[in-house]
Amino acid sequence: MIKLQIIGNLGKDCIVNEVNGKSVINFSVAHSERYKDAQGNQKERTTWVECAYWTDRTNISQYLVKGKTVYVEGTPTADAYTNKEGQVSATLRMRVQNVQLLGGAQSDASGANQYSGNNAAEVSKSNSFSQEASVMTGGGEDLPF
Predict the structure, then answer these.
(1) What pLDDT digit, counting tens, does each position of 99-135 carry?
(2) What is the DSSP string of the chain?
(3) Phi, then psi, of 46 in degrees rounded to 5
(4) 143 part of a folded domain
(5) Is residue 83 part of a domain?
(6) Is residue 144 part of a domain?
(7) 84 vs 28, 40, 74, 87, 133, CA distance in Å?
(8) Does residue 142 fall inside a structural domain?
(9) Which residues is 98 bridged to in the sheet?
(10) How many CB atoms within 10 Å of residue 135?
(11) What is the CATH number of the domain that holds 95?
(12) What is the number of structural domains in the chain?
């Protein structure tokens, strides 16, 4: 299995669709990275990921708004196509398995929230992992990262 994890910002408000009686939330996430080229010039590259989140829990859609920072993980696919200029391009897509709201536009007072296609036990399991990691590292002091 291939898994893609991305932290980025939503490019526009999500869209909730119904396909064959199942709900899907479609949204796009942009991740930008800054780097210096060989000549030392500052550059920025943005990668867009088109996301499809198949879930019955469509209430998360009210929080998936333009500018919101999210963590998303799932299974990626890439589709090649020829654009209007005749050049071959690609689209990166993801079938979402997990979404975490991190902040950004219209963030709520409760902080980061996690939504998963799995049950609530998995959410508490990931939270307990974070707590265990904090205990194992002495509460996060003197970490090299």
Answers:
(1) 999 976 554 444 445 454 443 333 333 333 333 333 3
(2) ---EEEEEEESS--EEEEETTEEEEEEEEEEEEEEE-TT--EEEEEEEEEEEEE-S-GGGGGT--TTEEEEEEEEEEEEEEE-TTS-EEEEEEEEEEEEEEEEETT--TT--EEEESS-HHHHHHHHHHHHHHHHHTTTTTT---
(3) -115, 130
(4) no
(5) yes
(6) no
(7) 21, 33, 30, 7, 50
(8) no
(9) 73, 116
(10) 10
(11) 2.40.50.140
(12) 1
Tokens of 72: 């998303």
Can you give the residue range of the structural domain that contains 79? 4-35+43-136
Residue 105 is predicted with a pLDDT of 59
Written as six digits, the tokens of 99 are 């979404």
pLDDT digit string (tens) for 41-89? 999 999 999 999 999 888 899 999 999 999 999 999 998 989 889 988 8
Q: Using one digit for the tens of pLDDT, what is the confidence trace for 20-36?
A: 989 999 999 999 999 99
Residue type for position 95: R
| β-bridge mates for residue 7, sequence order | 71
pLDDT at 138: 40
Looking at residue 42, its pLDDT comes to 94
| pLDDT value at residue 11 | 93
